[in-house]
Amino acid sequence: MKRTLLILFILSLSLIAFKEGQKSLIQIPQNWPKPVYDLNKNPLSKESIELGRVLFYDPILSKDNSISCASCHSQYNAFTHVDHALSHGINDRIGTRNSPALMNLAWSKSFMWDGAINHLDMQSLAPISHPDEMDESIENVVRKLQSSNIYPELFKAAYGDEKITGEKTLKAISQFMLTLISANSKYDKVIRKEEKFTAQEENGYNLFKLNCSSCHNEPLFTTGEFANNGLSVDTTLNDTGRMKVSGSVSDQYKFKIPTLRNIEFSMPYMHDGRYKKLSQVIEHYTSEKYITATLAYELRSPVKLTSNEKVDLMAFLLTLSDKEFLFNPEFSYPKNILLSNSKEKN
Amino acid sequence: MRLSIILLLLFNSQYIHAQEDNGELNLQFNIVYNDVQVKAEQLIIHPETKEQIYIDVLKFYVSNIELRTESASILREPESYHLIDISNPASLRIPIKNSTDHSYHSVRFNLGVDSLTSVSGAMGGDLDPTTGMYWTWQSGYINFKIEGRSSRVSTPNQEFQFHLGGYQFPYDALQEIELKTQSGSIIQINLDLAFILDRIDLSESNHIMSPGAKAVLISEKVARSFYTIPQ
Question: How many CA atoms lie within 13 A of B224 on its CB side?
Fold first, then answer.
């Protein structure tokens, strides 16, 4: 009897340790809302996150094995595609929208500039199968993974089974993306009272709260909603945005409000990447807008800022850069697995 | 006429494998054209118009199956999602666990995948995205997919493709189907493609690949093309 109790005690201890381990795989920042993503449906493990990371960096997801997720979502640019207004796919094909920066995705209610995707798990299906992006099918991806040298083993480590399915593949990619949390910028440290803003940043923060925060609200710096911010309509693309998904005229020219975190590194800006510089973005908001029926109420008249105030606002926006996120080795190319595999092949 | 149909059905039931008698009730879906069983890629000729038809792909979801008895007791199949595929005969038969009572007088199921499941991320088994029944560019399951060729389609390749789905208001394409049944261990459910194809003007509309009013309209036609047959 005593022995049974002892065994039970040890078992329960190890269970507690297991739970603790799970928790620390991602840290929900203090005072942040509850994640939208239901982690109970896809319990995180070190092995699945690692599998997801390898998949994220492996061009095996594309039809001709030429581009990976990271091709258009590079870590040093807050996981977007610097220098490219519109996303580039295989054979240099060009898409119609700017690839979004990837971070804090556990808090996203919908995905894509028009919110066409309803769940993080399903998001990767879109670039995998889009003819202008990876031009591949998930069926074929699963076949390629199953017959590769490395994946059956990685799936076994992650799921206890070498059998690869679409569900497991997508959920592993989600796991890696869920770890991409950016919450250690200067702004965050100021909020946590670990650092202080300069006078200029402080003034910029106040201007931000007054003029920008109704759409880019803290701490995620987006409401996750859709808005028409008064950009002139590019008649070659004639992208109606959210209306394509909802079919509702009241959504015409509305696009997902992007986060401002790491904005210093996530150029170009806007859904079509028309602005290369942050100063152009501020210029847009302080100028007359392209008037359509759905233009955001807050932007009916231009934001009024003096040139000094614009500089202060910019100074605040730069405090949203999170170097620990941008250079976190846990998010980078998994050399140990992918490089050694490609060497073996050669 | 009626007798000949019944005889034909009896003949058709030869296709159905003798089931192991484990007491389970089975739903058996039969894909027919004017009551005659059809297979993928087989030439079908319309008896009157002589229209020539080939079905290349036919897949659909049957979900949330419920069986009701006269006394209104209900057996709900748990985790009830089934992909029916004309090219996979095993998928046409659905054994219902714990259904030893065979006095059910009606069967109810959804044609398609409910909205809650549609927004809950990646799923496995019959709901795995590798089944080709999930839209990639806009989230949502394809409830019903039929692709083929018809001499009524005026394009050079004569193809028609209907991918019917959509879970969001006002274009929710999910259909609830309720059919009367008779006691017995197999419930035979026919899906008559003639009912669907004859009700669509293929020269006008031969291509639906996204949610919308048209998808809902045709989904309703599909739902009315299921019927149970006497044992």
Answer: 11
